[in-house]
Every structure is written in C-alpha cells, then in structure tokens.
Amino acid sequence: MAAQATLDRVAHAHHGSVRRDRRRALIWSYVFLLIFVIFFLTPPIYMFITSLKTSAEISTGSMPWWVSDPTLSNYVELLTSPIYLTFFRNSVMVALLVVVVTMLVSILAAFSLARMKFWGSATLATGVFLTYLIPDTLLFIPLFKIFAYLNELTGIEFINRWWILVIVYPTLTIPFCTWIMIGYFSSIPKELDEAALIDGAGYLQLLTKIFIPVALPGIIAATIFAFTVSWAQFLYPLAFTTSTDQLVLPVGIVTTLIKGDVFNWGQIMTGALLGAAPPLIIYAFLMDYYIAGLTAGATKG
Amino acid sequence: MAQVALRNVTKTYDETPAVRGIDLEISDKEFVVLVGPSGCGKSTTLRMIAGLEDITGGEILIGGELVNDVPPKDRDIAMVFQNYALYPHMTVFENMSFGLRLKKVAKDTIKARVENAAHILDISELLERKPKQLSGGQRQRVAMGRAIVRDPKVFLFDEPLSNLDAKLRVQMRTEMKRVHQKVRTTTIYVTHDQVEAMTLADRVVVMHAGLIEQVGAPNDLYHAPATKFVAGFIGSPAMNLVPCGLEEAGSGLLVRFTENIAFPVPDSRTARYRPHLGNAALLFGLRPEHILEQRPHMEPNQHAFEVTLEVTEPMGMDTLVYFTANGVEVCGRVSPNAGARAGARMRLVADLGNMHLIDDRTGKVL
Predict the structure, then answer these.
(1) Cβ separation of B83 and A189 shorter than 8 Å?
(2) Amino acid B112: pLDDT
C-alpha cells in the first residue's frame, strides 16, 4: 500500500513537472510571438490608419496613431480611378499568366529531372538551381538589351508592354519552382511509378494521375511562390514598362501617386493596402490546404 | 494464365554482373519462389520479368511470346512490392481499379471484379478508405487485391512480407497460399527468407551470386541439396558442415573426424563415395535433427559419440545443443527431457542415414 502511494506521488510529481515545463515553454513562445506580431503588424496597421485620413489631417501630423476624422474617400477615389484599375488588371494578368507558365514548365522539367534519368540530368538539376542564385539586379540590363535586339530582328515591340513581364518573370520563378518540385517528386517512392507503369500508365498518365496529386502540397507551395514573386516584383516592371497604361501595381502606385515632390500619402497607403490584399487572401485560403497536405503525409506509401 | 521461360538471361550494371545467365521454365499455374541472400540477383531477375529492368542478354518469354522489348504495361503481369506501393491519394477501391480504369474497362465490370477480389481477400469493408488509414497487413492485402483485379497472366511478388512483423508475416503467408489456391495464376515470388520459400513454393529456385544453384520441390532441396550453398542455406538452424576424411575400412568406408571419432558410411552410399577416397577437402553434412540424444534402441546407421555441450537453447518442442567438432560449431536437436546442460558431457547419436558428403573445392554435394 505504502509503496503504491509513493509510486503514485512520484508519478504525480513527474507529471506536474512536465506540465510546468510545458507551461514555461508556452509562455515564452507567446512572448516571442507577441514581439514578432507587433513588429510585423505595425507597418500595415499604420498604413491602414493613414489610409483613413484626409490629406489635410495627414499634413498636420498631430496624432499618427489616431484618426480624428475617418473617411473612405481614398478608397472611393482609387477604386473609381480607371488608371488604378488598369494597374490592378495588369498585375492580375501578369501574375496569373506567370503562374500558369511557371507551373507548366517547372512541373514538366522537375518530373523529367527527378525521374527520367538521362545523360547530364543531375548536372542540369544543379544548374537550374544555380540560375536562381543570380540576383535579378544583374540581369535586367542584359535582358533589356536582348529585347531591344529582338525588336530590331522581328519588329515586335517588347519594351513598354505589360505582357513582356510574362516573358521575363519566369526567369525568376521557374528555377526555384523546378527545384522545389524536384525535391517533392524525388520523395515519391520509385515503386509507385513502377506500380503505375505495370498498371498500364504512360509517362503522361504517371505525371497527371500519380505525381501531381501526390505532390500537390509541393505544387501549391511553388504556385504561392510564383504568384508572390510576380505580384511583388518591382525592378523589372520599373525597367521594362513606362507608359501609365502598361504599369503594374507596385510601380504604378509609386509613379502616378507621387506627383513631383507631392506625396499623396493617403492614396499611396490605400493603394498599397489594396495591392497587398490578393496575396493575403490567397495565403489565408491556401495555407490550410497546404498544411493539411503536408501533415497528411501524402508522400508516404 | 501462362508459362514463363527464361533463357540464358543476364544483367550487367556498369560492368558489374548482377545476373550471370539464368535458365528457368515455369509452367502454367505454378508457384515458384526465387530465394537467396541479398545481392544474389533474385530481385533483378524478377524486375527483368516485369520489364522494369532491361535485359543485357538472353530471352524472356511469357505465354510463349518473347517479351524482351515489350514494355511492362503490355506484358500482362501484376506486381506486388515490398513497400506495397499503394497510391496514397486514392481509396482502396481506386487503388485496386486503377489498372482497369486506365484500360477503360466498363464501370460495372470494374466494380464486380474489385468486389470479387475484395471478397477473396476479406477487405470488402475497407474499399472507401485511404492507404494511410490501413494497417500493414491490410495494405498488403490491398496490394494483392490490386494484382488479382487485373487478372494477369503472371503475378510477381517482390519480398511482399518483409515489412510485416513476425506474427503477421506467418499469417499472411498462409493467406497467400490460400489465395493462390483460389486464384490459380502463375506466380513468381522473391524472398530472402528460406522458410517462406519452403512453405509457399511448388518449386524453389535457390540463387547465389547471379546464378541458379538448384531448382526443386521444397522437400527435395531440403533432403537432397545439390551444392554446399543450398545445403547451408535451406533449413534453420543450418546444416552442420564439418571437415572430415574418408577412408577405407574392410569392404566399407569410414568418415573420420579425429583420431578417435569415425563413423562408418551406410552401405547404400559406399559405391557413390568410393571414387572420392583420396579427396582432402571433404565436408561432412548433417542436419541438426539428425543429431539426437542416445536412446536405448539405436536404429541402423545411428552411431553414438560423447561431447561436452557448450550452449543449450530450449525451444520448447526440443532443445538445441551446441558443441565443437573438428574446430567447427555443431548443432544438435535433442528431446527437452534428455537433460542437456551447458558444460556437461552428453552422449549423442548421429544418424548417418541422412548424411551428405560435400567436395569443398567444387562446392558440389557428392
């Protein structure tokens, strides 16, 4: 009896210490999470507050964290301004097309590099990744020259057209997406393809019926990446497009809402916030799916 | 349903030979097991039959048709893999019907065939589940179901039970035998486990270093191994192989181990062994169950000797005893009531009626 009681007490004490450890760990995680949340959410909140102010109120600069006279006029003005809607449309078109092109190319590239062992495939796979390591700031001038040359050669005007970005962005997105997908595809057990091959699948069916569904979390991750890159890219559109009707959001906001030395802060903040909305919505919507896919262990046979 | 033939099949990976010339005829509805240690080429052979590996040389025929250059999907085979290789994003039903759906078989037919296979394997309740919701044994059944549904000419099994725990493995072994009796399809089964090979096969093919050592019914391999390798590989605990000399004694022969220990060779074998009288590299082979405790009445060809036991292992049904003879550890199998104790002297009996004599230089059983 006594021994049993002692055992119980020991077990209890042990249990208690585990709970205390867990509590301490939780408290610390919350402390750090809170610090990071404040750090990262302060700018958007400041933007949001500013977007609700009139230009007059902003220029007095009395209370940066408080709106004394809230107004939606910035939103109304932007959303009814045809030029802002053009930027938005250009951005959407560019991002969607880039995502489609990127995924088409990188899924096929990754499949062949991961599975069809051919001469030089390993070197090629590494090469794809090395391409990604070259900073885009080094590339825009050579790219510009290439398009100027192509213009002379074909007579097609590439520069200052929004769709040139659909040709240019994949140089940034395809290497990285291909790299992610090679990793995902390689983690699929070889026997799965062999089973499918014996079951009568060809390479295309192997890709569409086995690889893409099984590697869906990876494909979604790559899609998010491609979308984010093409939505937020600033340097290339700044270099390649100039006419107002050909601009995408990030460049459009900066070039049209800053008139000379007049910064229309209210509208700039509103435009930036509205511009940040689509990626935010996509993340919020796909993140659940993404995480669910990861935790389901879809690649485990 | 079909027979399979391999004619001088070879496989070389970058100069390294994996399979060095295999000839094998497998008849219709036969259950053949390829067995051997890892690296013996058994899996490579199976994968060449499946079409997953190119053939370096030779011919493979399935149902009389040369399939050397036929892709896997057109060979009308089904394969079960060690790790099951179930499609993780599909339900059990979808997994089992995948092959038929690719062939655009009518929906009703697919449903009937999947349900029939599920019934045979007792997995009818699992059809809507995903592989990750299944236990190892259930996954194994689904993998078999996927093969059965296709109704192929040949079933290929690549170590299908290796990922299961010991108890389940024995259970699934029986299950496979039962399924084969119902479905009756030509089956080629690869394993490294000689017990699996013995229990499942109509015929066992023992492979070693890329070559076939011996082909035969399980009992033939056990009682009449052709080579030293087969003698040592089939049976657990393994056959005892003790260096010995062969000498003449009157009209008969003696196998001599030491100055004091020598056993007369059974009369039925003297003629067979006589040509090897001068051979200095002979091994005497005797299975543990033919080394027993001494009983009051000795059978003919049984000969008593006394040893000091080094280790005893009670197995329940009998007790394994280990001692050293001619520098080699020897295992015997005695009754649990024989009073075997480690460190004690014990009188044992060798049943020479079941002896083998092996030429250690050629590796052949004489």
Answers:
(1) yes
(2) 93
In chain B, the domains with their CATH numbers are: 4-233 (3.40.50.300), 240-365 (2.40.50.140)
Residue of A nearest to B104 (CA): A200
A43 and A87 co-located in one domain: no
CB contact under 8 A, A199 and B131: no
C-beta neighbour count of A137 within 10 angstroms: 8
| Number of domains composing chain A | 2
Q: What is the pLDDT of residues B130-144, one digit of tens each?
A: 998 888 888 988 998
| Phi, psi at B284, each rounded to 5° | -100, 125
Expressed as residue numbers, the domain containing A18 is: 2-51
pLDDT tens-digit readout, B42-80:
899 999 999 998 899 889 999 888 989 899 988 999 999
| A37/A77 same-domain check | no
Residue A68, domain member (yes or no): no
Same domain, A231 and A122: yes
Query: Which residue in B365, B355, B360 sits closest to B282, CA to CA?
Result: B360
Residues A168, A252 within the same domain: yes
Give the predicted TM-score (pTM) of the model.
0.79
In the structure encoding, which two tokens stand for residue A173, read together?
């997105």
The helix-helix angle for A265-295 and A73-80 (nearest 10°) equals 80
Residues from chain A that touch B188, judged by Cβ atoms under 8 A, are none
In angstroms, rounded to a whole number, what is the distance separating the alpha carbons of residues B18 and B15? 9
Residue whose C-alpha is closest to residue B33's, from B149, B205, B274: B205
Asked if B86 is an interface residue toward chain A (Cβ–Cβ < 8 A), one would say yes
CATH of the domain at A185: 1.10.3720.10
Nearest Cβ partner for B72 among A191, A197, A214: A197
Check whether A301 has a pLDDT greater than 70. no
Q: What number is the average pLDDT over the span B218-233? A: 91
Nearest chain A residue to B50 by CA distance is A198
Closest chain B residue to A300, measured at CA = B88
Residue A10 maps to a domain: yes
Instruction: Give me the mean pLDDT over the A7-22 stretch.
Output: 65
Q: Please tell me whether residues A22 and A95 are part of one structural domain.
A: no
Indicate the residue of B82, B85, B150 with minimum beta-carbon distance to A192: B85
Q: How far is A119 from chain B (nearest CA, A)?
A: 14
Nearest to A286 by CA among A229, A216, A210, A211: A216
